[in-house]
Write a structure and sequence with these properties.
heterodimer; A: mainly alpha; about 55% helix; elongated; B: alpha/beta; about 45% helix
Chain lengths: ~170, ~230
C-alpha cells in the first residue's frame, strides 16, 4: 500500500490541501462532486479516464460516477471469479484465460484503473508465453490491486457524501 | 406536442461490455443524441429490421420492434458477430447501407483499423472513448441528414410541380428549406438540437430553453425518427 497507508480521512482537517470556501480541507468541486483530480487518493491508481467519467456527471446524471463504479465492481468480481475458476479447473487453457482477462482489461481501462490494468497486461503476457506460474502470480497481484482500488473508491464516495450535497449548476451546459 | 421542431439524431450503440455501454450512452446523451444501446450485433440487426438468419427463425420476426437510426457505433471485439461483421451486414443491406458506422476498439491494430475503414466505417475510435471523440460524429450525421433532406426536398419539389401551376409557392418552399437547413446546421454546431418528442424530458427541457433563444423554426412534413428511447440490454 506504500504511501497511501498513512492517509487517514478522519484526520482530514490537518491535511494541508488547498480549499475552496475555507471549509473542507480537500478540494471538492461541489458542482460536480469531483475530487479525484486533486486528492492523493487517485494518484497512480486512477488516471485521466476517471476524470473523464467525473466530467460526465452533471445535473442530468447526478450519480453517474457511482453508477459506473458499481457496474465496474459487479463486472470485475464476476470476471475475477471466472478466471479463478478456470485457473483451478483448466489451468492450461491459456486462450480462455486470455480471453477472460481481455474482457477484464476492457472494464479496467474504461474506469481508468492504471495499476490494475498493468497487472492485467502482465497476466496476458504470461498467457501468451504459456507460463502458468507467471499467470498465477500475476493473478494474485491483479486481485490485490482490485481490492486496493475498491477501498480507495469506497473512500472517495465517503468523501463525497461528507462533503455535502452537490450544488445544482445555475447555467445550462453549452 | 405537435410542433415544427426537429427530432434528435438517433444513435444505436452496440457493445457487449456493460460499463462501456453505460459510458457510450452518457457520452452520446451528453452530446444531445437520442441513444439506444444493445449488447450484440445480432440484436442490433433485429432492431434495425434485418434478421440474423443464422440465429432467428422466420417466425420470430413478427414481434420485432424496428427503429430508425442516424448512426451506428459499435465495438469491434464482441462474441458471435464482431463489429466488423456487423459493419459488413449493414453496408450490404440496401435499406441500411447509408447509415454511417463507427467502430470502437481497445486495441490499436493498424491492419484492423484499415480493414474497417475500407469496409465502409466512417471512423475508428480507440477506447476508452472520449468526449472529444463525440465531435467527430457530427459531420457524418449532418451529411446523412442533408442527403436525406435533399432527397425529400426533391420529392416534395416534384409533387409541388405536379400539383401547382403557379411557381411562387414552390420557390418559397425552396428558400424556406435552404434557410432551415442552414439554421439547423448552425444549431448543431452550437451543440443544440431541437426538442425531441420522446420521454427524455430532462434533456428536452434544457433544449427548449436553447431553442426559444435561438428562434429556430424547422418545417417537417413527416416525422422521421422513432421517439422512444429504448435501451435493450
Amino acid at each position: 500500500m506504500g504511501k497511501y497507508s498513512s492517509w487517514d480521512f478522519k484526520k482530514r482537517d490537518h491535511d494541508a490541501k488547498v480549499n475552496m470556501n475555507g471549509d473542507a480541507s480537500v478540494q471538492v468541486d461541489k458542482r460536480r462532486g469531483r475530487i479525484c483530480e486533486h486528492a492523493d487518493i487517485c494518484k497512480g491508481y486512477l488516471d485521466d479516464q476517471f476524470n473523464q467519467i467525473e466530467e460526465l456527471q452533471d445535473e442530468v446524471s447526478p450519480n453517474f460516477v457511482e453508477e459506473v463504479v458499481a457496474l465496474f465492481f459487479k463486472d470485475s468480481s464476476r470476471l475475477l471469479a471466472n478466471i479463478e475458476r478456470v485457473l483451478e479447473k483448466y489451468p492450461r487453457d491459456f486462450s480462455r484465460l486470455d480471453s477472460l482477462m481481455y474482457q477484464l482489461i476492457g472494464s479496467v481501462s474504461s474506469i481508468g484503473a492504471l495499476r490494475m490494468k498493468n497487472e492485467c497486461t502482465s497476466f496476458r503476457d504470461h498467457c501468451s508465453d504459456g507460463n502458468l506460474e507467471g499467470c498465477k502470480r500475476s493473478f494474485q497481484k491483479v486481485k490485490r490491486e482490485y481490492t486496493t482500488l475498491k477501498q480507495k473508491l469506497e473512500k472517495y464516495f465517503q468523501w463525497l457524501r461528507q462533503a455535502g450535497p452537490v450544488e445544482q449548476a445555475t447555467n445550462s451546459r453549452k | 406536442m405537435a410542433v415544427d421542431a426537429e427530432t434528435q439524431f438517433h444513435v444505436l450503440a452496440v457493445d457487449d461490455s456493460l460499463i462501456d455501454r453505460k459510458l457510450i450512452e452518457r457520452l452520446l446523451k451528453n452530446s444531445s443524441y437520442q441513444v439506444t444501446t444493445v449488447d450484440s450485433g445480432s440484436k442490433a440487426l433485429e432492431l434495425l429490421g434485418l434478421r440474423d438468419e443464422e440465429t432467428d427463425p422466420p417466425s420470430a420476426s413478427l414481434e420485432q420492434q424496428e427503429i430508425e437510426v442516424n448512426l451506428i457505433i459499435t465495438d469491434y471485439c464482441m462474441p458471435g458477430m464482431t463489429g466488423y461483421d456487423l459493419l459488413k451486414r449493414i453496408k450490404g443491406s440496401s435499406s441500411l447501407k447509408d447509415i454511417p458506422v463507427v467502430i470502437m476498439s481497445s486495441e490499436n491494430v493498424p491492419s484492423r483499423i484499415n480493414r474497417c475503414l475500407e469496409g465502409g466505417a466512417e471512423e475508428f475510435f480507440l477506447k476508452p472513448v472520449q468526449l472529444s471523440d463525440m465531435k467527430k460524429l457530427k459531420p457524418h450525421l449532418l451529411k446523412g441528414k442533408s442527403k436525406e433532406h435533399q432527397q425529400e426536398t426533391e420529392q416534395e419539389q416534384e409533387q409541388e410541380d405536379n400539383n401547382n401551376i403557379s411557381s411562387s409557392s414552390s420557390s418559397s418552399t425552396d428558400s424556406n428549406t435552404s434557410i432551415n437547413n442552414s439554421n439547423k446546421r448552425k444549431a448543431m454546431d452550437e451543440g443544440l438540437s431541437p426538442e425531441g418528442t420522446s420521454s427524455n424530458t430532462t434533456n428536452g427541457n434544457k433544449k427548449r430553453k436553447a431553442i426559444d433563444g435561438g428562434g429556430l423554426s424547422l418545417e417537417r412534413t413527416r416525422p422521421r425518427f422513432s421517439s422512444s428511447s429504448l435501451t435493450v440490454v
